Amino acid sequence: MTAGTSGRSKGSTTPTCRRDTDDGDSAVEDVRRALETGRVGELRVDDLTEADLPCLSWSGTRLHLVSVRRALDRVRSGEVEYLAVRAPSGDPVAKVGIDYAASPGAGTLWQMATIQELRGLGIGTHLISAAENRIRKRGLTVAQLDVEVDNPRARTLYERLGYREASRQSASWHIEEPDGSTSLYETEVATLCKHL
After folding, report:
1. Domain span at 69
2. What's the pTM value of the predicted model, to 2 decimals?
3. Count of CB atoms within 10 A of residue 72's CB?
4. Inside any domain, residue 151
5. How far apart are CA 175 and CA 6, in angstroms?
6. pLDDT tens track for 50-64
7. CATH number at residue 49
8. Is residue 81 part of a domain?
9. How many domains, the chain?
10. CB–CB of 189/171 below 8 Å?
11. How far is Cα 72 from Cα 2, in angstroms, rounded to an integer?
């Protein structure tokens, strides 16, 4: 099996994209301020677009962004939706794809990422809830995702949200090395499912 996270790197950098503001504050600082004065549910979740690609350097390497662009190309066919949680500036700070063609009768969450500095603040939970709502609107009752077996932090979140292991399998995808070359990354993933 080939997982859909091609090109993801293990590290991240703070985004530099600032479409709507000129004050020099980072999207991370904007979100932290918003969370201090309100709730995570007040952060806007909407469709990720090609115009957002320059703002996603935090989510992975160039190879990963090529994979995201390919996924966005599939949005027009209706077989994929791609969502983003946005900072008050409009910059994406978390993202997830929903693939309706990967597994009949289910919405498959993939390419999920949150800016590293904003993890653990409820943004991923907010994004997954929005994705599950989109899946329900399609008339489907199952959401699923793959998580690497050696990623206990993510798995703990998914299990807290009601996802349960359905299977395990080997997975591989190409990653971009720091020198720009590519290599095959191999791992074991657990497929987790949730009945909505």
Report:
1. 27-140
2. 0.87
3. 18
4. no
5. 6
6. 999 999 999 999 999
7. 3.40.630.30
8. yes
9. 1
10. yes
11. 19
Contact 147, 108 (CB under 8 A): no
* Structure tokens belonging to residue 111: 């390419």
Q: Identify the residue whose tokens are 């993202």.
A: 95
Give ∠ CA 6-63-180 in degrees, rounded to 5. Answer: 120
Inside any domain, residue 72: yes
CB neighbours of residue 170 within 10 Å: 11
Secondary structure of 37-91 in HEC code, one letter for each residue: HCCHHHCCEEECCHHHHHHCHHHCCHHHHHHHHHHHHHHCCCCEEEEEEECCCCC
Which residues contact residue 11 at a Cβ distance below 8 angstroms, ignoring those fewer than 6 apart? 116
Using alpha carbons, select from 19, 35, 10 the residue that is nearest to residue 187: 10
Residue 189 lies in a domain: no
**DSSP state for residue 133 in the 8-state scheme:** H
Residues composing the chain = 196
For 64-118, what is each residue's pLDDT tens digit?
999 999 999 999 999 999 999 999 989 999 999 999 999 999 999 999 999 999 9
